[in-house]
Amino acid sequence: MLMTMSIVARINTCAKFVLKSPNKSLDCLYSAFASLRLNVTGSSGHQVTQKCGYARPPRNPYTKPVSFDYAGELMTQEPLSPTEILWKYREIKELQNAPESVRRLFTVEYASGREKLKHRHMMAQERMNKIVEPDDSLEPSIVRASVIVRNMIPHIIKFRHDKRNKRLLVEQIQRRRKLLKFLKKQDYERFIWLLKDLKVKFINIPAFNKRETRKGRLKRLAQEESLALKRKKIEALKQQLAEEHKIFQEQKKQIMNTIEKDITNFNLDKELIARSLKQWNEDKRKET
């Protein structure tokens, strides 16, 4: 009761203070509440002074780490040499005899971001034209998309709020996956060769990307454990069968040697014995 009356009294004091100063902003009210002290009677009967103030809690928003592992990139973009002349200026013969200060103006060092990207595109296209036929359109398109993806991934990781370029990057990743899937159906050998050449891993996203539950995870682990146990037993049986087969071959060799010795000792006709055994096997087969 005493605490409630003390709070009401302090609030009335703050309201009168604000009404006397109408030109001041709400910061005055916040400062008045910050300087407000409450008298609280403890359980032992002594007075405890508490300071009542408003403090906004610090905001620590959760930032999800940016990851593009689903793109399947096994390597990063190799940096360009700063002394390399841009592709569009290579046919200019006057640059060969030009001074060093003039040649530097046409190198990668003084090129913009778009010019560097264009240079990468033309270099990749020139290299691909030497390997594949000019009529093929899948491989150059996949290489072009790979250059764009590798060029944009470091930018998006550094500037995570660049939503426009992030959307373009996701579109290029999906487009490259679509072209790779079409190439896989058309020619599997070219598909494998291009993956090895570009150092890209083909990750096929399932149709239903369902979140794994605890029950499902336990079921999957039990299935994996059972499969591992089956493989272990099969390997043990194969090893046992190989040992038994080795023993059987040794016993067979010994028996055949004794049969050969008996045939020679008793002067038996080997061909007659073979024909009689064959006839006996045929008669047995007919009876069954």
Automatic annotation (TrEMBL):
One Gene Ontology cellular component: mitochondrial small ribosomal subunit
A molecular function GO annotation? RNA binding
Q: Which UniProt keywords apply?
A: Coiled coil, Mitochondrion, Ribonucleoprotein, Ribosomal protein, Transit peptide
Q: Where in the cell is it found?
A: Mitochondrion
Keyword Transit peptide, does the record have it? yes
Q: Name one GO biological process term.
A: mitochondrial translation
Q: Which Pfam families match?
A: Ribosomal_S15
Q: What is its main location?
A: mitochondrion
Q: Which residues form a coiled coil?
A: 220-258
Family the entry assigns: Belongs to the universal ribosomal protein uS15 family.
Q: What is this protein called?
A: Small ribosomal subunit protein uS15m
Q: Which organism encodes this protein?
A: Potamilus streckersoni
